[in-house]
Amino acid sequence: MDNTPQGSQMTRPVGLGTGSALTRLSAMHSDSTPYDALLLVSFGGPEKPEDVVPFLENVTRGRGIPPERLVEVGQHYFGFGGRSPINDQNRALIEALQADFAAAGLELPIYWGNRNWEPYLAETLQQMADDGIKRAACFVTSAYSSYSGCRQYREDLARAVDAVPGAPELDRLRAYFNHPGFIEPVVDATLAALATFDPSTREQTRLVFVTHSIPDSMNAGSGPEGGAYVAQHTSAMDEVVERVRAETGHRYLHDLVFCSRSGPPQVPWLEPDVNDYLEEVAAAGSAPVVVIPFGFISDHMEVIYDLDTEAAATAERLGLPFARAATAGIDPRFVAMVRELVLERAATVRGEEPRKSAVGSLPACWDLCRPDCCPNPRAPQPALGQLG
Ligand SMILES: CC1=C(CCC(=O)O)c2cc3nc(cc4[nH]c(cc5[nH]c(cc1n2)c(C)c5CCC(=O)O)c(CCC(=O)O)c4C)C(CCC(=O)O)=C3C
Ligand SMILES: [Fe+2]
């Protein structure tokens, strides 16, 4: 599949020396009509110890998480001073996006709202309404399709719109697990992690692709045909492995594994858990491991606790050389991807047929979800961004 990035960097006439042509081109490639804002939609996290319990209550309301699991997860947060890294990472992403937009001549204010912590989505929509925002594109900080990463955010948005008279119209941008702006930073992070290992044994390394576990049933219901969560991760993983092969000349052994399982033990969730997987690697004769948290776009608590703390300790105990690949974070390619997604969707809404960048075995994701896609595991609720 063609993977040339779309956008101004390709068509900019370098060295033509005609300021007006440059200006015209950049304006043409930065037409975000009909959007007058971008809304960053995220999970939210606690910022101080007193926030931890109310945050966890928000996350788990009515979800049947056993109390002992909540105590355990609370400890993860308290271990880091009661502060999740996620809000600061979203602040950094917004700053990077503002700089990227400005450099591209895109004048679009950026707002931020969360599911589980301040700033809550409804407060932000109120601010947007007060500022006269009429229609906004929504970038969700989850790259893959599942109830938790897709529909639940669309339900959150529908509820917030409902609560705010005069709220702007909202379009959720497509899932981006296979956008080159996401895949390329993961490839480079994997290469950088591999480079920390001794060249003489480097090719024995296992690439351990890690994402958030979800219930098997949630995976089965994800996407229009079901199974999209695992299918999208598998496709992204295969693409990264192939690009690493192209760079290094070696096709590394690799697997898709999971972290952060919660929920009652009798309910099956996606496996293997990363720690169990490392045990298997050790039992099979040991190998260096590069842990690649490609299910997360930045270093969330799952990454700094479940991987950097827990899985790293497991690897150490087992004597496996361990390196953790960086997340996309504010890599300039990832930041530019957000801009491309806004402009792509804006063009689609205007009735144009923009090129939709996607790499690997799956096409670019759909803009609007089918009503039966990623169903709510409890009871159906109104959700934004679907067909019909
Ligand atoms: C697919 C997925 C993503 C990726 C998509 C996305 O990014 O949205 C994600 C992200 C996140 N999950 C997060 C935190 C938590 N998730 C929990 C619980 C759960 N997650 C689930 C799934 C996912 N979660 C599920 C099926 C549950 C069971 C309860 C339920 O059905 O909803 C719990 C409860 C305690 C526990 O059991 O772990 C916590 C505290 C944070 C913040 C981290 C930080 O502070 O940096 C982030 C970014
Ligand atoms: Fe979660």
UniProtKB/TrEMBL annotation:
Q: Where is it localised?
A: Cytoplasm
What keywords tag this UniProt record? Cytoplasm, Heme biosynthesis, Iron, Lyase, Metal-binding, Porphyrin biosynthesis
Where on this chain does Fe-coproporphyrin III bind? S84, Y153
Pfam families, per this entry?
Ferrochelatase
Which pathway does it serve? Porphyrin-containing compound metabolism; protoheme biosynthesis
**What does the record give as EC number?**
4.99.1.9
Q: Does the keyword GTP-binding apply?
A: no
Name the principal localization, coarsely classed: cytoplasm
Enzyme class per UniProt:
lyase
Residues folding into a coiled coil are: none
Q: Which family, according to the similarity comment?
A: Belongs to the ferrochelatase family.
Function of this protein? Involved in coproporphyrin-dependent heme b biosynthesis. Catalyzes the insertion of ferrous iron into coproporphyrin III to form Fe-coproporphyrin III.
Q: What is this protein called?
A: Coproporphyrin III ferrochelatase
